[in-house]
Amino acid sequence: MASTTYMRNLSDEELVKLFIETNKDVYFEYLYDRYADKVYRKCLSFVKDPAKAEDFTHDIFLKLVLSLNSYKEHAKFSTWLYSITYNFCVDKVRTAKKVQEVELDDNFDSIDDSDDSDLKEIEAQRLRDTLREVSPDERAILLMKYQDDFSIKEIADTFGLTESAVKMRLKRTKEKLRKKYIESVLFWVLLISKFTILLKWWLKH
Question: Residue 129 to residues 64, 125, 126, 146: CA-CA distances in angstroms?
Answer without folding.
Answer: 32, 6, 5, 17
